[in-house]
Amino acid sequence: MTHKGVPTPEFLKLAESASPEDIQRAQHLADEWLSVEAALAQADVRHTISIFGSARIPAPEESQCDGEDQRECADLNHFYADARELSARLGELIEMRQLRHTRLVTGGGPGIMEAASRGAHDVNHPSIGLNIVLPREQRVNPFIAAKHSFEFQYFAMRKMHFLKRAKAVIVFPGGFGTLDELFETLTLIQTKKMPSVPILLYGKDFWTRLINLEVLAEHGLINPEDLKLYHVVDSVQECLDLTVPIIEAIAQTHE
């Protein structure tokens, strides 16, 4: 569509025929990408460890999900505690190794995202929050500095920033949004649209009950080796065993 940065006639013709709404949408998409990219580049963030998970899982000191959905989520609140501890341990190591170019990044909202940001905050690690405008449970959590919190209208741009600098992806239990992020990451790695990075599914009982990707391999819908794209972990220590070497490798390269 372009040649050396110059729009082709086909592109100009397409732009002329686009509706004002489409042009505005394209501008908004570009703004969401470029504004966050500029902020992260200015902060010299080169490496991230991304942490996904439900916005509905409460802290242990809370008893119910917030909002209209009053289903009990208290049986999942140990994941909040684990996400907080894990992030504190990772953030502490990043700070100890003085890896100024490496950050933990979360979805910026409540639940698991709050837990991860909170753990980082506990050890004075400045995590990054990629928030999304949603009608219900999403809100900015108080454990991310304003300059490190970014709000998105479009999931696509948010997911791109989640993954562009990622050296590992840790996925706690969550709903449709979490599964969307998980399967897009698996797809991008499978199709070699992004470098292969460890994908860690936290919570063996939850994940083994929810998905059985071996069925896909049995029917030839994925290759057997695709099952190696993710690992199920069941404790903070087990997750650290796989992520600490990644941080140490970053430290060794001095990047």
Automatic annotation (TrEMBL):
GO terms for cellular component: cytosol. Keywords: Cytokinin biosynthesis, Hydrolase. It holds the Pfam family Lysine_decarbox. Its EC number is 3.2.2.n1. One of its GO terms (biological process) is cytokinin biosynthetic process. It catalyses: AMP + H2O = D-ribose 5-phosphate + adenine. GO terms for molecular function: AMP nucleosidase activity. Belongs to the LOG family. This is Cytokinin riboside 5'-monophosphate phosphoribohydrolase. It comes from Aliidiomarina maris.
